[in-house]
Structure formats: C-alpha cells, structure tokens
C-alpha cells in the first residue's frame, strides 16, 4: 500500500518531463528505497508516519534511539523538567547504569571461559593434522609401486589372451557348421516326429546362411537336401491342413507354419476360408435342422444360443485367425474376409429370421427379448472385428424389424381384446335378466371393460418395455432410444389403439341396419361413457404412463393429448346422440303405431289413459334409470317444487282456453293461427334431433323431444272425433304429469304437448275439449 | 340484394298441398290446397310477379273436402287433380278427383279487386278417380311429358293407372297393380319418371322404394330399407335417367342409382327432423330442395352426382376464346357438394316444397300454418352455374 502510494506520483515526474525533474526525483527515489526496506522488515511507512507523537527514531532525545545525543538530552531535561523530576531521573539513571554495569561484568566473565576452551581445542587440532600429513605421503608412494607391478603383469599376459579369443571364435563357427551339416537329418527327424514347428524354426534359421554360401558345393548340397525335406514338410502340413478334422486353432497353426515356409499367401487364404466355410456351413445346417418342422423346435432362446455359440463363435475364431495370419495381405485380404462374413452372415440371418417369424404369434416377450439380446450381443464381437461386413448393423436391423412386428402384434392384440370386451358386454346385456338385477350391471360392466382394457394396455406396454430395458444390449441403439419409443410405442401402439377404439365405437353409429336392432342401446350408452371417460382422464393417464416408461426424445412430432381427447369426445358425443336417436325411435314407433292404427273418429269417450302412454312413461323411466347409471344428472332450468300442479293449471285452463276458444267461433278462423304464431314467436325453435350433452337430463330431453315431435306429426295426419280429441287431451295430460321430471326445461314438454293438443283440436270437426278437472281425475286414476 | 329477400304469403287455413302450375311456362304460378275440417277448403292460385315482387292470388273453393295432395296437369293449365278427405258419419275417406278451374283464372291475369272470400269461384269437377274399390288415395301423379291423359293414383296398397277420356270428363281404369305381402302396406308417395318414354313410376311404402313399369304394371326394382324409417317422398333427376332422390323420417335425403340399389350414391343428413319433401330443380339437377318438419327448407348443391359435375358445359360455337378459357378453368376444379342455404322463414313444419315451372331459380315452400314462402336461388350461385 505504501509502495503504491509512493509510486503514485512517479509517472507524472519522469526525468525531463517537468522543469523541477532532477530536484524532485532524488528524494523521491530515496524514499522509495526506504519504503522497500521498511516493507521488508515489516515496518510500514504508514505505521511510522501514523505515530508522530510516539518516540521518533530520529529524535536525539530518545534514550534508546539510534541518534541519541547526550548533550541535547541533558539540555532538554534541564530546560523542561522541575528539580524534583530531575532528581528522580538522576537516581533512576544511576540505578540503571549500575544495573547495566553488573550485567556487562557477568557477560564478560562467561565469554572469557568459552574463549579459553576454544583456544585449547584449536591447539590440539593443529598437532593431529601434522601426523596425518605424514601418513598420506606414505600411501602415495605405495600406490605408485602397485601401479608399476600391474603394468608389468598385463604386458606378460597379453599374448595368451589373444589366442584364447581366436579359439573361441573358431569353436562357435564350428558349431554352426555342425548344425548346418546336421540340419537335413534333424529336419527329417522333426518331420518324422511331427514336430513341425521345430522343423520350420530350424529351416528358418538356416535358410539365410545357406542362401549366402550356396556357391560352395558342400553348402549347396545341404541346401538341396533341406529343400527336399522342406517340400516334404510343406506337403505334410498341407495334407494335415486339408484333412481339416482338427479344430480351427490347429488349422491356424498349420497355416502359420506354411506361411513361414514361404508358401503363397493368396492360395492359403483361399483354402483357409474354404475350410472355414465348410465348418460354418455345418453349423448352419445344424441350425436349419433345428428349424425343421418335424423335431420339436427348441425355444427361441436355445436356438439363438446355439447359433451364437456355434456359428457366431466359429465366425469369430475364423475372423480372428485370418486377421492374425493374413494381416500382410492388406485391404484385399480384409475385403475377402468381409465378403466371406457377409455371405455366411446373411445366411445365418435368414435362418434367425425364419426362427423369429415362428415366434411372432407367441405372447411372451421376455423370452424373445432375451433371445434377441443374446443374438445381438453375440454379433457384436464379429461386428467389431469385421466392421466392413456390416454384421452388427444387419443384426440391429433384424432386431428392429422384430420389434416393429411385435408392436403390430400388440396393437392387434389390444384391438382383439377390445372387441372381446364388447362381445362380453353384448352377451352380458343379452343374457336373460334376473329380475331387478339388470340395473346395476351396467356400471359394473363399464368398470369391467375399462379396467380390462387398461390392464391390457399396461400389459402390452410392459411387454414392449422389455425392448428398451437397460441391460438389453440393443436398447441404446438410436432406433430404440428414439423412433421406437415415440413412433412405435406411443404413436403406433397407444395412439393407434385409442384411434381404432374410437373408430370401432363410431362404427356402431352408422351400422347399416339402421333399424337400431344391430346394437343394443345399452352398449351405445356404455361405449359413449367409456369414450367420455377416456376423454376426461384415461387418455392423458395412458399417455403420461407411456411417456414416463418410454422417455420419448422429442424429435418426432407426436399426436398431442388434446387431439386424441377431442376425437374421443366426438366419438362419445356421436354415440350418445345415436343412443338418443335409437331410444327416441323406439318410443316414437310406439306412439306412432298407437296414433296410426286407431280409429279416432269413432272412439268412445275416454275413461282411461291409453295403455301405450303408460308404456311410454315406463320406458322413459327405464331409460332414465339406465342413463342414470352412467351419466350425471345434469342441469335443469329452475323450477318450483310443485311444478306439475302449477303447470297443469296453466296448461289446462288458461292456455287451453286461450287457444281453443276461438276455434269454435266461426267468425275468426285466423285467430288460432295468429295466437299460435304469436306464441311461437316467443318460444325458441325446438331442434328435435339436436346434439346432446353428456348428462342424463340432456339425453332424456333429447329422447322425449323426438317422441313428442313424432306424436305431433302423427296427430296432424289424422282426423279426430270429439272423443278422440278428448282422449288425446287425457293422454297428453298424462304424459305431462310424468315426463316433466326427466327434462332440462319442462317448458319444452308443455310446448310440445300443447301443440299436440292444439293440432288434434284443429284436426277435429267437432272440438269439444274435456273439462280439465275430469282430465285430471282420469289421469290420477290411471 | 333486395330481391333475394323471401316473399311470404299467409293462408288462413292449415295447408300441406302445393304444386306449381306445371303447364304454365311463362308466369310463376303455384297452387296451394288448404286443410280445414270446419270450413270450405280452398285452392289458392298464387301468381308471383317477379319484376315487382308482388303476389297476386285467386281463390277457388274446393268444397269436396280438405286437400291432402294436389297436382296440376302438365298439358292443360286449367286442369288439376286433388286428393281430398271426405268425412261422412265417423268415416274418413280419401278420394281423388280431376278438376277444371274457371277459364279466366287459368292464365292468372284475372284481377280480383275484392277480397277473395267474397267472390270465390268454384272448381268444376271433371271426374272422380272412382274409388269404390279402393279408398285412401295417397297421391295422384300425372304423366310428366304426356298430353294430360294419363294419371296414376296410389290408394292403400294399389297403384292405379287411369286414362282420362272425353276431355278428361271420364276416367277409365287402364290397369292396376298391388303390393302383396303381409301387414297393412300403404303407399305414401309416388313419382312418374320423365325418362324412358314415361314408362316408369317409382313409389314409396314404409321404408321401401319400388319402381314400376307402367306398360306391364310390374315391379322393376325394389330398394328395401331405403331409409331407416318411413320414406316420405321421392323425386327423379330430370336429367339423369337412373338417378332418384328420396327422403324420410330418418332425417336423411338419399340419392340412388336405380341400377345399383344396394347402396345409396350419396346421403345428406342436414335436417333435424323428418324430411317431407325432396325436389330436383327441373333444369339444373344439382339443385336439390328439401322441406322438413324441423321448419326448415334446405337448398343443396349436389354437383358431384348431377348431370353437370364439372359445371355448365357451354357449346363451343357460341363462346369467345376468353370464355372458352374460363370454362376450361372451371372444369378443372372439382366442385364440392354443399348446402347452399337454409331457409328459416317458417315457424311450423314444412310439408311441401316445389320449384316453379316457369323460373328455374325460384321455389316455394309451404308450412302447416299456411305460410307460403317464395325464395330464389342465391344470385351468386345462379351466375356461377350459368357462366
């Protein structure tokens, strides 16, 4: 810090930079040096500067300071201090001086003794050194004598040494010569004993020498002999090689020896491969035999094991040996091997595929996956060894193909399971009903169907999941990490299944037998609820489950949940609408028959509600119960608790009067129309076959709307007598009494029934309506 | 587009019978029959003045009974046939008769300064289609191209072919056929095909459509379960001889090729209640009109199964190069079937719709409450078809 502060101004005051340069610079530099020193000794300048009040080291009055000046000090004391203090300081000083004197004395004594002992020691050392010098001199002279003697000895031995070296050389040469002369016999012996390796080694050793000295007749003879023997040796080796019976390692040895003998590599490698082919084809044949239809085929795991150990292992050995032996062959050799491996590999793959195809029908994935895993794992070794042959790629391809087929198989399975569920439901619905037991069955059936489908889906997912398990060797291939998960499992299997489910369900809506007899309405209702459940929860659950199990890496576009949900919802809506139509049709037909077949002109005065109306109410109640099992109540328009009574009075007295009264008065035929038109102006148009919402009230409203509209249209086609009209009145009131509770807006029922009665009145040449009270009595009695 | 606005005419009574005056090809004229059990029924002759958008009406009394069906002779403007109810001592009989309207009303130009009710004239009865043997005439159909001498009536399960003789004053039963089978079979509707020299008639009963040869009175084809429920009406394509449209209580309109009756060519499901009437436009058969008891009238463009699937094919002679180019362009783009318009002017069920015989771009619809609405094909579409 101090240095920095000191260095601060320096750049501004470089020499020549400013007029006062030299004068300003000298103290500057000195101070800097001081600073450095002080920094070194841990004294900071700031520290020094920070205590000007303390004892200044330069102060001449400081007793302990370096610049102490007695005169100045005394002067200062005398000038500044009073007498008493002077006296005190004097005594103090005297005491201090005395203490210092005694201290000095003890120090001097102590050091004096040490000096004396040191002097003694030095003197003793002087004597010892003198003695040592003498001894060293003697040693030097002795050494000189020794050197002299040794020189003389070596001079005398020189001659003999040279002769020994020469003799040793001659000996070695002779041994080599002996080896050469013995070579033919040794070789013959080796060949006889079958120690081909030894023989080849000897031959190798002698070859060069013989080559060099072949101009000498004796050596030429040896060489000729050797060549003959070697040829025989090669002959035998080939013989052995061709016989083939021995395993791959021995063959490899033979080839190695032959190569060492300088046989043509090209030919050898052809032969080698031909032999290997024979062996591997043997393996393939045995595999094919396992495939054959007659013997009970071993399970697929065993099959791949056999293939793995037999064929792939063999292929590995061959490849390894080949590469070791024929490394010198370069790319052409490698290419030959690759072609060889490719050809045999493809045959092997064909066999494996045939075997795997037999496995497609089976339900158990784990065995298949394990078999595929082994298959794939086994092929990794030759794959690494022979990258050019593309074996491991081909293997991966096979695995992928099998995986795809499995996915298709599972999709089929799921579809079949769904159809099976539907058949079960149909049977359950068609089964003879136990009295009172039929009702709760529907919710149970729904739960059964839902859970069984879900469990099928889960089982399929679990089965398919085996393909991506960590320990499976092919699970980290890009296909299994990406496409398999997203396109295969998610899109193909799950989304595909949900779609096909929706389609199957929708097909019930437009079944050709439009009479509605084809599918029981309860099934429509159940499917509709099922689809709705899928829309609200199940789809997202299944997809989440899938996404969790198969960490889908999102490079492929996948169908979003919302699209599927929309599809399911649309299906549910169509099914429910169809249900409404079918049920509405059933009731409509009843009403229509009842209107069309009756002779309304000559009917008797009504005493009862017609049975068909009771039947309509019963059926509606039954439908209400049925729908109530699966769908929530839904929202009604606000209504008073005493609804039926209130509306009845309005309906039968005021409104009825208002609407029928003008009809009798001949003067105003217009009024009926006018009134009904005005009334219609204020009521909304009734969409009869309108889409329904997913609740009970809406469904029932739809059914009742359809039925009542049918009643209206049928009534308009008939002509009524007085009592016919009254019967209609009674019937409508009866319906009014019982149907309002089912619909969302009871006003709707009133409106439609009003219109029925009004139309009947119009279709009556003699319209005399019944007294409302009588109508009431009849209805209550009925 | 002021003159695209619908023209509405109100009748005092309920009505469900409507027909264009078939023999009239200049003036736009419709006949409407009313249904009233208490008053004398009427036939309203409704003239529509296209230029001024004005309706002129004349009323004829039809005292015989309420009219269920009406059809005009294709040859004589003054002749028409009705099916009507006669109520007599707790019996309802539906009869059919041929009538002649007063001469001065034929052309419709007759001014009726007073209210119609005071000066109502009466129809002149030409002949009854004798129904002693058969009651309940469902409908009467004239031979479409003929001289107004042949007529077919449908009664219960019988199909009767009449010859009108001595200027229609006498009806002679020429031949007849009947539906065999169990149950009470009843014809609901029938149409006479304008093709094959007018030798084919199609009828509807319950859910079945049948074709008949009028020469032998034998069945030619039969479409079982043509609709899920009752078939209400049918009509022949005026330009494609094997095509036929039908409608019914399943809210659907179906188009059939009678050579292959197993499957409809096309199905429309636009209405939300029973479809009572279906009519092909007389000259542009892609225009199909339907009326339904959901109180709507729907005009559909069924280009793909019409006789002009690639738009109007213009003769090469009378068009310039430019037009040629345009028509080529048009023929390239496939045209889509669609609903042209939904007309919601009615408040009650629409039981009858029909095209005008004079103006191919104009049609009328009649609802039960007596409201007659005259509408036009949207102008844009009209030009699209013409150009």
Question: Which labels suit this protein?
Answer:
heterodimer; A: 782 residues; 76% helix; B: Methylamine Dehydrogenase, Chain H; four-stranded antiparallel β-sheet; 7% helix; 48% strand; golgi apparatus (chain A); Vacuolar protein sorting-associated protein 51 homolog (chain A); Cullin_repeat-like_dom_sf (chain A); transport (chain A); coiled coil (chain A)
Can you walk me through this structure?
The complex is a heterodimer of chains A (782) and B (387). Among the domains of chain A are: 264-388, no CATH class; 407-430 and 440-559; 587-632 and 678-781, no CATH class. Helices cover 76% and strands 0% of the residues of chain A. Chain A contains 25 helices and no strands. Chain B is globular and about 55 Å long. Chain B contains four helices and 29 strands. In chain B, the strands form seven sheets. Chain B has a five-stranded mixed sheet. In chain B, strands 1-29-28-27 form a four-stranded antiparallel sheet, with no helix packed on it. Chain B has two domains: 8-105 and 120-178, Methylamine Dehydrogenase, Chain H (7 Propeller); 195-308 and 334-386, Methylamine Dehydrogenase, Chain H, CATH 2.130.10.10. The interface between A and B is medium-sized, with 29 and 32 residues. Chain A: Keywords: Coiled coil, Endosome, Golgi apparatus, Lipid transport, Protein transport, Transport. Chain A: Belongs to the VPS51 family. Chain A: It is found in: Golgi apparatus, trans-Golgi network; Recycling endosome. Chain A: Residues 1-37 are annotated as: Disordered. Chain A: Component of the Golgi-associated retrograde protein (GARP) complex. Component of the endosome-associated retrograde protein (EARP) complex.
SSE layout:
The complex is a heterodimer of chains A (about 775) and B (about 375).
Chain A: H1 2-7, H2 21-40, H3 45-50, H4 70-80, H5 83-193, H6 196-212, H7 217-243, H8 248-260, H9 265-291, H10 300-325, H11 331-359, H12 365-378, H13 380-385, H14 391-430, H15 438-465, H16 478-507, H17 521-549, H18 561-596, H19 611-630, H20 643-664, H21 669-682, H22 696-716, H23 722-739, H24 746-762, H25 772-781
Helix pairs in contact in A: 5-6, 5-7, 6-7, 7-8, 8-9, 8-10, 9-10, 9-11, 10-11, 10-12, 11-14, 12-14, 14-15, 14-16, 15-17, 15-19, 16-17, 16-18, 17-18, 18-19, 18-22, 19-22, 19-23, 20-21, 20-23, 20-24, 22-24, 23-24, 23-25
Chain B: E1 7-10, E2 14-20, E3 28-35, E4 41-49, E5 54-62, E6 66-72, E7 79-88, E8 91-100, H1 103-106, H2 116-119, E9 121-122, E10 124-128, E11 137-142, E12 150-155, E13 158-165, E14 170-178, E15 187-192, E16 200-205, E17 208-213, E18 218-223, E19 231-236, E20 243-248, E21 253-257, E22 266-268, E23 275-280, E24 287-292, E25 297-301, H3 321-332, E26 338-343, E27 350-355, E28 362-367, E29 371-376, H4 379-386
Parallel strand pairs in B: 5-9
Antiparallel strand pairs in B: 1-29, 2-3, 3-4, 4-5, 6-7, 7-8, 8-10, 11-12, 12-13, 13-14, 15-16, 16-17, 17-18, 19-20, 20-21, 21-22, 23-24, 24-25, 25-26, 27-28, 28-29
